Amino acid sequence: MQAVMETYKRLGISPTGGRGSWLFDDEGNRYLDFIGGIATNSLGHGHPALVGAIKDQADRLIHCSNLYEIPIQAEAAAQLTQATDFDRVFFCNSGTESVEAAIKLARKHAHDHHGPEKHEVLTFSKSFHGRTYGALSATAQPSLKAAFGPMLPGMVHAPYGDLEAAEKLSGPQTAAILVEPIQGEGGVNVAPEGFLQGLRDLCDRLDAVLIFDEVQTGAGRTGHLYAYQGVGLVPDVLTSAKGLGGGFPVGAVLAKEEFAALGPGNHGSTFGGNPLAMAAIKAVLGVVNDEDFLAEVRFKGRILKNALETLADRVPGAEVRGEGLLIGFDFGDPDLARSVFEHCLEEGVLVNLVGGTTIRMAPPLTVTRTEVRAMLDTFRGGVRAAMSAAVPEAAVA
Ligand SMILES: *Cc1c(COP(=O)(O)O)cnc(C)c1O
């Protein structure tokens, strides 16, 4: 890897193949993939519907640019709008790009209706919205931004879950509130009861755009096609990426008609919405946008979460958070979390660490119940080993 810039701290495994929930390397090792390319391999590895759609589309036409009509783009957009409460879709190629587009859209909407003073975007502590300047400025994690200033002006941050602070920090100058319904990178933090509805009401009062960043929670991850559908309110704009392409790079911004403020020349993308990416989205939605499939995601998520909660009862200070197949086990202790993470890795189970003390699980949505149980066995073993190493007499039975 010497020629690759060292932007990632990589683990020393080299997957070269995959099937379902499993990754393989060339040395004959196999790994149970409970992180799924960071909530991205929604259909697992080598899913015939996704692979077939990509192969077939590659044979026909990979790219032609948005200079022309792209029928398969219209089809993918229609599939998304029919499955949600939104009317319009803008396609791009990643999560960060979808956030950029959403910020531009919201500022344009505010500008058109109220003028340039209404341009602030309110976001929340521990959020993650991406790495480009708009998305990074929106990301309220100082450590990610420290060396890269100045940030985009007009970004305001309130503590996640603190509605009162959000009310204090917003006003007529607020163009948009951008929030993850469940924070992924920040540690799998679930919005407290009433918080999202409070933001909905606040946006209505301020005539500000409510944007849900569902890059991680979308495409079926929580057992709903989009997490908002399990919350009982509708944001004005929603961003989607990660699992939406099942591993193929895609991004999308979904907007209600009255918020679809971007017109010709306002925004664009060379690759965004190209036929190959649209074939991937259509294949993923073809599997995931199905009530039985989503019910099964919720069911498997319940098995996983219930078992982890039972385990957490025996670990002082531990907590389990998340929904569907986005679950975090917070050990409340970085050493314990790392030790369990390393045990899982040694035993061939892939998870990852977020927020320092939390192990995140985001397996393929197609994971089997048997694989969930296998993962739990390994995880329990890791907790037992770590606990007995830390406090021998308090070993978990
Ligand atoms: C991963 C993530 C992003 C950034 O997506 P990229 O595809 O890495 O640019 C933005 N928002 C949320 C909530 C994410 O989880």
UniProtKB/TrEMBL annotation:
Pfam families: Aminotran_3. GO terms for cellular component: cytoplasm. Pathway: Amino-acid biosynthesis; L-arginine biosynthesis; N(2)-acetyl-L-ornithine from L-glutamate: step 4/4. It is an enzyme of class 2 (transferase). One of its GO terms (biological process) is L-arginine biosynthetic process. N(2)-acetyl-L-ornithine binds at R131, S269. It is found in: Cytoplasm. Its cofactor is pyridoxal 5'-phosphate. May also have succinyldiaminopimelate aminotransferase activity, thus carrying out the corresponding step in lysine biosynthesis. This is Acetylornithine aminotransferase. It comes from Rubrobacter tropicus. The gene is argD.
